[in-house]
Amino acid sequence: xxxxxxxxxxxxxxxxxxxxxxxxxxxxxxxxxxxxxxxxxxxxxxxxxxxxxxxxxxxxxxxxxxxxxxxxxxxxxxxxxxxxxxxxxxxxxxxxxxxxxxxxxxxxxxxxxxxxxxxxxxxxxxxxxxxxxxxxxxxxxxxxxxxxxxxxxxxxxxxxxxxxxxxxxxxxxxxxxxxxxxxxxxxxxxxxxxxxxxxxxxxxxxxxxxxxxxxxxxxxxxxxxxxxxxxxxxxxxxxxxxxxxxxxxxxxxxxxxxxxxxxxxxxx
Length: 268
What we know:
This protein is α/β, with parallel strands linked by helices. It has 2 domains: 4-163, 3-Layer(aba) Sandwich (Rossmann fold), CATH 3.40.50.620; 177-267, GMP Synthetase, Chain A, domain 3 (2-Layer Sandwich). Helix content is 43%, strand content 13%. It has 10 helices and 7 strands. The strands form 2 sheets. A 4-stranded parallel beta sheet has the order 3-2-1-4, with helices on both faces. Strands 5-6-7 form a 3-stranded mixed beta sheet, covered by helices on one side. β2, α3 and β3 (75-79) form a beta-alpha-beta unit. The model has no long low-confidence stretch (mean pLDDT 94).
C-alpha cells in the first residue's frame, strides 16, 4: 500500500498534468488540502471556487475566505439559491445530484471564462463507501477528483494537512445543511436557519463534532460519544433547551448512538 509521500507525489503529478485548475473549495478538510497542494504545485494557475447559499453556514464561507487569503490564491465566491423554484427544495433522495450538477456546471463555465483547463474537487477514497449521488453528477460533467485518483483516504488527508500546518486538519467534515433533513421533508430557508442557529450554539459551546437533525417540531442532536455526558449535564443542558426552543423547536432530543456521518441515509 502506498504511503502518504507517494500519494502526494502522484497528486502533484496529476495537477501538473492538468496545467491549470479551478478548485471546488468549501473550506473543509478535503478541499483545503487539495487547494493548498494545487497552489504549491501550480501557483497562480490554481483558483479557488466557493458557493455561498442558504445551504451553507455563514462561518463556513468566512473561514474559506480566510484560508484562501492565507494561501494567497485568487478566490471566487458565487451566490446561489438551490431553493428558488427548484425540485431540490422537495428534498428527494437524489437531492445531492441535483445540487452538484448545478454548482459544477457553473464551475465549468467559470473555468472556461478564466482559461483554466480543469475543474477539480476533493472527493477521496472513503467517499466511495457512502451514499453519494453527487458523484454521478461529477462523472457526467467530467470533474476530476485527484485526491481520489491518488488514493487518499480521509485519514491520509488529515495527516498530511496536519504536517502542512493547515488549520482544517482536525475539523469536523462539512456537509450542507440539507443533510439535516429526512428525505421528503421540504427544505425552506426558515427551517435551515433553525438548524443553523442551533448548530452555531453547539459550536460556540466547544463541541467539535455535531449535527442537529430536523424532525418537524423536534431537534435531534448528534455529538460524538465522548461528549454525550457533557451535552446532557447541567447547566449546559438547560441552555441548550432554551436556545433550541428560541430557534423554533418544541422538543429537543439527544441521539444515544452519537454522531455518524450520513445518518439520514439510514432510511434508504
